Predict the 3D structure of the following.
Amino acid sequence: MIELEGVPELIDPVMVAAFEGWNDAGDAASTAVAHLEREWKGEVFAALDAEDYYDFQVNRPTVFMDGGVRKITWPTTRLSVVRIGGEKPRDLVLVRGIEPSMRWRSFCNELLGFAHELGVELVVILGALLGDTPHTRPVPISGTTSDSDLARRMDLEETKYEGPTGIVGVLQEACTHAGVPAVSLWAAVPHYVSQPPNPKATLALLNRLEDLLDLRIPLGELAEDARAWQVGVDQLAAEDSEVAEYVQTLEEARDTAELPEASGEAIAREFERYLRRRDGGSPGGHATADGAEGGSYLRDSPGGRGRPPKPPKPGAGPGPGSGSGPASGPDDEDSSED
């Protein structure tokens, strides 16, 4: 039995989770949850025991100085709570950690124990995969679930994927078997520029989360960071004719595939988001757990952006991964994860 102390009774709570590692290309998903916690000043109330789930030779602890005293931070998964104010306040339970090295079933059961004790009504798991998508176009986001009723109600894909999976797929199935509604949102990250960070993919995940939960997320400087990221990749691609040619090939394939629906649901969704932001205040937004603005105990993972590797010839498949996900993405099902 999990006993929670110091956590108030929550209002319509939704659990939003992301895990660094195989399911987190470009650190896009974990950065999205870190953004939510930072903007809404999340309060950490629990951390899983690192000894139970992590191989410290794979995910090593770090040493730091605190007032002249050496301390160690162990890799783990932490849970925090944020309250979203407004006319209809609600709470988010944020889960941010690292894909466990072992005992995945116990790991999922422990998270589900917290979800049960907190009265969580929906679990949303964020992920990012590497794919054949151009950086110049909107980031493809797929929403999937194993629940056919939930798929119809929330306009999601019912996943049919079969093959290797990561902690995102395992946790979603654990939720389904436990009777907890669960959804996965996946961002497709260009495989030829897979180095973190990828603010454009993070922004796309947060926009899709807004639509799914019908809320307004303060974006801070994320939109500006996404534009700067794309300009930077444009410049890098322009320096290499092979990369530029390959990007053009991806653009043509993407535009052809999406032409019939480009002006329908996408435009309507963007207009709804515009109205929601206009009603809620300025587009940049300000914080707001309890109307305050501030930082977070979490910091985005550092990481530079280097020159993209030379891509494979069209038709040869995606290039090698960067360590944040497999070459064709976790659970490679063309944006149809469980």
Summary: The chain is about 35% helix and 20% strand. The first helix runs from residue 28 to 39. The beta strands are 14-20, 43-47, 62-66, 69-73, 78-84, 90-98, 122-131, 141-145, 157-158, 182-190.
